């Protein structure tokens, strides 16, 4: 009598015995993550907000008040030519980090084409 019910009960007890350690592990993992996520987030923020020694505090950029019609670039596009940004160097034609000298070369180049540009 009750053989089938007892078998089902024993199966449930075995499953509970297997699931209990998993449940404890998941709970422990949740507790660890609650502490770990803010810690990792603060590390990411602190490292991403550090100022690099390579980038000056006051950024010098190419500023043009007027452009010649022969120059196929907009004033907005020229605002991206700043010290420390990546762009094509006029002297080599290669991409690299732009220096103040590179920005001055661009200013001279555009001025020779009829623009009014300076480094500010």
Determine the structural class based on helices, strands and strand pairing. Answer: alpha+beta
Shape: rod-shaped
Q: Average the pLDDT over all residues and give the rounded result.
A: 79
Radius of gyration: 32 Å
Number of helices: 3
H/E series: HEHEEHE
**Sheet of most strands:** 2 strands, antiparallel
Strands, total number: 4
Give the % helix.
40-55%
**What are the segments in which pLDDT stays under 50 over at least 5 consecutive residues?**
none
Q: Determine the N-to-C terminus distance.
A: 95 Å
Beta-strand percent range:
5-15%
**Total of domains:** 2
Question: Largest sheet, order of strands side by side?
Answer: 1-4
Task: Explain what the structure shows.
The protein is an alpha+beta fold and 120 residues long. It folds into 2 domains: 1-50; 62-119, no CATH class. It is built from 3 helices and 4 strands, in the order αβαββαβ. Strands 1-4 form a two-stranded antiparallel sheet. The relative contact order is 0.12. The mean pLDDT is 79.
């Amino acid at each position: 009598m009750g053989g089938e019910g007892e078998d089902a009960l024993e199966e449930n007890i075995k499953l509970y015995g297997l699931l209990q350690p998993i449940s404890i592990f998941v709970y422990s993992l949740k507790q660890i993550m609650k502490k770990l996520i803010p810690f990792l987030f603060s590390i990411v923020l602190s490292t991403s907000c550090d100022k690099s020694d390579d980038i000056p505090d006051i950024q010098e950029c190419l500023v043009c008040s007027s452009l010649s019609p022969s120059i196929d670039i907009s004033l907005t596009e020229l605002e991206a030519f700043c010290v420390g940004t990546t762009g094509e160097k006029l002297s080599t034609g290669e991409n690299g980090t732009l220096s103040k000298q590179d920005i001055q070369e661009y200013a001279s180049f555009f001025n020779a084409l009829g623009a009014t540009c300076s480094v500010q």
